[in-house]
Amino acid sequence: MRVTLSVFAIAYFNLLSAQIVINEVDYDQIGTDNAEFIEIKNIGTTLFPMQYVTVLLINGSSGAGVQYASISDPSWQPLAPGEYFVICGNQGLTLNCDHPGSTTTNLVQNGPMDAIVLINVNDEVLDVLSYRGTLSGYVEGTGTTATDSNDQDDISLNRWPDGNDTNDNNADFVVGCSTPGAANSIDPLNCDLTSSIASVLSESVFTVIPSPGGDHLVVTFNDGTTNAALAVYTTDGALVAEKRLSGSAHGGWVIPTADRHGQLLLLQVTSGNGRIVRRVLVP
């Protein structure tokens, strides 16, 4: 068991060149917390020896940091540049989990003012995140005001942009979609949509069909109302296209995607009956 880090040790990490960062944390779900995870990213340009890393979980509810868990494994493989390493509570409920924690529920405490610390074999701090407030001695800059929620599934604290590190937890982390083992995503619509991807996503009133070569999407819509509007977004919230159906909400659109091969797009149709959203991976 690692010793509790001193305030000096936490302050000293600013002098170290951090190659890995805490990139995403999902600590709260609807009902039982059984799909928690911590994602680490290598933001450097060389392999990083994860076998020498320990993840410390810190409880700050009393105002002082108290270590409640320590996670490490000498069998962890080196992490390549740009790659992710995911520690989870429940492998059956978490995509891309590389290491299961010691418990399938309540792996990561919900705060307020809890913290996660990455240290190396010399107990030097590589990165630290204080969430739901500032836990003195366990924070970069100030703690996050962004908060994970148990009112909605599939959201988490995301470093944004993905991998960005300004040495200020509050500036670096926002609420985004849960994407363990993948680049962080700020969904402009609903993160609790299914994350499964198919070449054709369809429903009786809203169909999205990619062309075989991926040069365009064929979108059809029919819900019987009038003046439907289509908006197409990238997963970072950028608006790609907007189109309308005048009169009866029955018809379709062709969306050019020749410059978006391999991208995940979000398509939203709004009409008098509400809003429907689809995700599609451009071939």
Structural class: mainly beta
Mind telling me the CATH superfamily name of the largest domain? Lamin Tail domain
Overall geometric form: elongated
What is the number of beta strands? 16
Number of contiguous helices:
2
CATH fold-level name of the largest domain: Immunoglobulin-like
Low-confidence stretches: 1-16, 192-202
CATH class of the largest domain: Mainly Beta
Radius of gyration: 21 Å
CATH arch. level architecture of the largest domain: Sandwich
Query: Please, how many domains?
Result: 2
Task: Tell me the β content.
Answer: 35-45%
Biggest pleated sheet = 6 strands, mixed
Mean pLDDT: 83
Strand order of the largest sheet: 6-5-2-1-9-10
Q: What is the terminal separation in angstroms?
A: 48 Å
Helix content: under 10%
Order of helices and strands: HEEEEEEEEEHEEEEEEE
Please describe what this structure looks like.
This protein is mainly beta. It folds into two domains: 7-177, Sandwich (Immunoglobulin-like), CATH 2.60.40; 201-281, Sandwich (Immunoglobulin-like). It contains two helices and 16 strands. The strands form three sheets. It has a six-stranded mixed sheet with strand order 6-5-2-1-9-10. A hairpin with a 3-residue loop joins strand 11 and strand 12 (206-210).
